[in-house]
Amino acid sequence: MVVSLTCVFSRCRFLHIAVAQGRRALAYVLAAKMAGFGSLDIKEHNGQTALQIAAVSNHHLILQDLLTHGAQINTMDLWGRSPLHVCAQKGHFLSLQVRIRPRGNSNKCIDLECLTPLHVAVLSHNAVVKETRQLENPCSFMTSELAQRKHKYLECIKMLMLMGASYGTKVSIELKSGQTCLHMACEEANVDLLQLFLNQPSSLSTFSGNTALHIVSSLQNIKHQAEAAKLLMKRGADPGTRNFENDFPSQLVPGGPIGEKARLCFSP
Question: Domain spanning 167-177+202-268 has what CATH number?
């Protein structure tokens, strides 16, 4: 049977619309047809496949159907994001929980900024932590909303790690100086993530030679700085380690009341 390209692309467009609208039954039928023609991964104008649209929309059941039909997980959109990156960025842990199982190196795929999905999830969690700290006298609704967002990103991080993602993977571009997810968490003194990552103590350093303790020590006006430093040392961080500039972590602590509290952590 000969099927015209026009017919195939029309079905593709209808599939994308059905997925975006959450019409699971219609999407299932169309996906089965498209899979039969080997065109399930055709992209629309934003470079997104049906699977990527399902990830963006958090239609996790449709996403599972598309995977069942053979949709590819490592495709990239115009922004260089895979479906895993999208879920990590938006906190769509339900879409991860339907078992977007790693195929090949899907957990290690990088976007245009050389970030893995786990890096993206950590940065998103950091952003919520920072937003929470900057609010003065937030209302109960805002407090609840921020707590829910933190929870979503934390669940994404846990799921990605269960799928095999490593918090020790470095970002190999100059902008991020070879940081790992652990170092990124340290930049915000993100205690929730530090507790998660430090279940397996690590002495990883960045390309500039700064350990996680160096990064926490150098933070400016972050009230959880002392708590983060204590946690790192409790889990094995060595305050006697020097970076490439021959500095101890204690030498990087800034002045001021918050810095003084952190400095006390290094007192014998």
Answer: 1.25.40.20
Residues whose CB falls within 8 Å of the CB of residue 14, separated by 6 or more in sequence, listed in order: 26, 30
> Which pLDDT score, from 0 to 100, does residue 5 have?
44
Cβ burial, residue 177 (10 Å; 0-12/13-18/19+)? middle
164-171: list long-range contacts, CB under 8 Å, 24+ apart.
164/102, 164/107, 165/107, 165/108, 165/116, 165/117, 165/118, 166/118, 167/118, 167/122, 167/197, 168/202, 168/204, 169/108, 169/116, 169/118, 169/119, 170/204, 170/206, 170/207, 171/113, 171/114, 171/115, 171/119
Here the tokens at position 112 are 């245009």
Question: With 70 as the cut, is the pLDDT of residue 174 above it?
Answer: no
CA distance 60 to 66: 10
**3-class DSSP state for residue 205?**
strand
- Span 221-255, pLDDT tens digits: 888 889 999 988 888 888 888 888 888 889 899 88
Please name the amino acid found at residue 54.
A
Phi/psi region, residue 209 (left: phi>0; alpha: psi -120 to 50; beta: rest), is: left
Residue 137 falls in which region: left (phi positive, over 0), alpha (psi -120 to 50) or beta: left
pLDDT at 100: 56
Domain-by-domain residue ranges, the chain?
1-72, 79-165, 167-177+202-268
d(CA 33, CA 39): 9
pLDDT for 61 beyond 70: yes
| Maximum Cα–Cα distance across the chain | 81
